[in-house]
Design goal:
about 350 residues; alpha+beta; 5-stranded antiparallel beta sheet; about 45% strand; elongated; DUF4831 family protein; signal; DUF4831
Length: about 350
Amino acid sequence: MKKGIFVALGMLACMNASAQDFSPYTPGEGEGIVYFLPKTALEVNVIATKVTYTPGEFCRYANRYMRMDGIPTQPETHWEIKQIDVRSVGVPDSTKVYIMKLKDKNVASNVELTNEGIVKAINTTSPAENQTDMYQLDKTEPHENARKYMTEDMLMAGSTAKMAELAAKEIYNIRDSKNQILRGQADAMPKDGASMKLVITNLDKQEKAMMEMFTGTTDREDKLFTFRITPEDGMNNKVAARFSRLLGVLGENNLSGDPIYLNVSAASSLPAAPTDDKKKKLKGVIYNIPGKGSVTVSYQGKTLFSGELPVTQFGYTEVLTDGLFDKKINTRVIFNPETGGIVKIDKNE
């Protein structure tokens, strides 16, 4: 099991030691398995694109030979916000830590915990987690080297201006060759459609590489930046991070960038939580009933994310009573380690 600690208490059951009482944990008090319930942290994921422009070797001659205006002659780098996404993640709640003590009347044969000690399952195994990446980060493919398409005359030219002139003529020749092939007027026509497609593709590649000597190249590379924030009801204009077109994504305290704001509010009301007196009378497996929060993220007055997410802090805890774990009843429970809520429960009598 890659993620999770499987705590085998089956040996204790086989020894007729019976299993557990679930109680609030006090360090140094009693023996058993200690587990946490999670609380919600909001993970703000910012995907930013680094855009890098590199001028072409013949950029100064783009207007003269290719009739192209406004071609930059200096390198330039800037950043753009591509996407902002928010998701709920579970982190151990130090105020909700419990111990599973041995008890004569009840049986819970095994317990599965995450690496951080959050309960995942009792008497069963939680489903395998999907390990695929959540976000697709794009990157520009390497550019073709235009010099390998240069003719001998270009390489032997005595000046950059002359090289640019000959390169422009070669580009026009390539375009003329493509037009003749597409019109069926070429002296040596491809034998079939597949051959024609291959020839046109190669000519396109040559033209693009030669044109980049005039227009320059632009590379785009996505990068992921992640920030975690503990949500509160009524959280307004919390600075989650900052963004600068020149510097990219920055920490919340770096004033070189403009703020990315996070807003959180309880999305729906749950039934009133049980009173403390009622909870004290119940003994068993304690779990969360999470609430929901409305979450928005904005930058420079524009909303870039809006959604409703589970937030444990907006809910309360409940108890699966001891009777469900009687020796005669094999109760199996799967929990959501992100929220501490029950995903599935079944039993065999």
